[in-house]
Design goal:
Helices cover about 30% and strands about 10% of the residues. It is α/β, with parallel strands linked by helices and about 400 residues long. This is Radical SAM protein.
């Protein structure tokens, strides 16, 4: 599994305002947190002109209504691991923690999807492992996540993404297929994946757009790789395809557990922000460059407050990088677990940078001291939260 964030598509909801820009009486660009922007009436026509057909998102009026009803501070996005299985063994995989776990049963998964819906979730990042390696589980999730009322982004390494599979995903009402790309240099990408995987991603992007779905590439950057030729060529590829480039910063988890040497600096973060502000927009009106914390004029970490993650074996986490379990969906309601997390000020959307990848205070207090320990850790013990009744302890995990 490649390393990506909430999140990859979290800011897909930062849609462009209607002509005129900012809301009346303000000089700032609205964002999904302080103003949930309505879908521009012109967007379906714009997409039709660009591709000759309407994108899936434009054909979901119930989703548009649900989006309008959403309020700041509500849970909006779930990164859901369909499976821990993967057809690659990448050197930077954050999901190594869940590499060999038993899958949560379908009954519990179905109940969780229903509860997410009642809590207002309208955006799913469907990932793994590699989600298409478990087609039955993937189809179950896609059919039970209220697809007419949710925006669905499937994240893939592209190895098995052919035309038939893309058509199948479209029939299941997927809106977007995002692809991991380690480098815009074929040899570098393939060295970390499988020979030929770069070309499969490039081809799959064209097939996805041909099918009328949205697409993007996601690239993990370290302090060094951000300025590399491989990053520049990946940027050029995204621009040439007219798609978004999701920049995922290195996180000290998984195979990089506790490591700080590759993390970006404030200067690196400023450089990425500069790229976002100067690279223009794609045909949907979204900025070409994206990070999961970007949010108009109020960038913030969405973990817990707006975004959460569900592991393949049923653990609810504040984020797929923040591997602190609030419990298993087999044992407790999602509302209970999230309410407990909200006791911590770390998870209220008040931190301007990425908790796991940029915030030195958080990393030094909650990541580095637990390096090498079995994950996920017990969130209640680590953050001093009150544990709701009915929880089964995480045996051997930071009690």
């Amino acid at each position: 599994m490649w390393m990506h964030g909430p999140v990859v598509a979290c800011a897909d909801w930062d849609l462009p305002p209607k002509p005129g820009g900012s809301p009346a009486g303000t000089g700032r660009r609205p964002c999904r947190r302080c103003l949930f922007i309505k879908l521009s009436r012109s967007l379906p026509d714009t997409l039709r002109r660009e591709t000759g057909q309407t994108h899936m998102y434009a054909d979901k009026p119930l989703l548009h209504e649900r989006q309008k009803r959403h309020r700041p501070g509500g849970l909006r996005t779930i990164a859901l691991d369909v499976t821990s299985r993967c057809n690659m063994t990448c050197s930077h995989c954050y999901a190594e923690t869940f590499n060999r776990v038993d899958m949560v049963d379908m009954g519990a998964l179905g109940r969780a999807l229903e509860e997410f819906y009642t809590l207002g979730v309208l955006h799913y990042v469907i990932q793994g492992g590699e989600p298409v390696t478990s087609p039955k589980r993937l189809e179950f999730v896609l059919r039970h996540c209220h697809p007419d009322e949710t925006y669905i982004n499937v994240v893939s390494n592209g190895w098995e993404m052919d035309r038939d599979r893309i058509r199948w995903l479209k029939d299941l009402k997927v809106d977007k297929i995002a692809f991991s790309l380690d480098s815009g240099i074929q040899e570098e990408h393939d060295a970390n994946r499988l020979p030929g995987s770069f070309q499969r991603v490039v081809q799959a992007i064209d097939w996805v757009r041909e099918a009328g779905l949205l697409s993007s590439i996601s690239i993990v950057v370290t302090h060094d790789s951000l300025y590399s030729e491989g990053f520049r060529r990946a940027y050029d590829l995204a621009r040439s395809k007219g798609i978004r480039m999701d920049v995922q910063i290195a996180e000290p988890v998984g195979k990089w557990d506790g490591r700080k040497d590759m993390l970006i600096t404030p200067e690196d973060a400023a450089y990425i922000k500069h790229l976002q502000q100067t690279s223009g927009r794609i045909s949907t009106g979204q900025t070409m460059i994206n990070r999961d914390i970007y949010c108009g004029d109020c960038d913030h970490c969405p973990a817990g407050i707006e975004f959460m993650s569900l592991s393949a074996n049923g653990h609810l986490l504040p984020c797929n990088f923040l591997q602190f379990s609030l419990g298993n969906i087999r044992d407790r309601s999602i509302r209970q677990m999230r309410d407990s997390l909200m006791e911590s000020s770390w998870f209220r959307g008040e931190v301007a940078n990425c908790l796991c990848g940029e915030n030195d205070d958080f990393i030094d207090r909650y990541i580095v001291p637990y390096a090498g320990q079995p994950k996920p850790l017990d969130a209640y013990a680590v953050f001093g939260l009150e544990k709701p009744p009915g929880e089964k302890p995480l045996c051997g995990h930071a009690q």
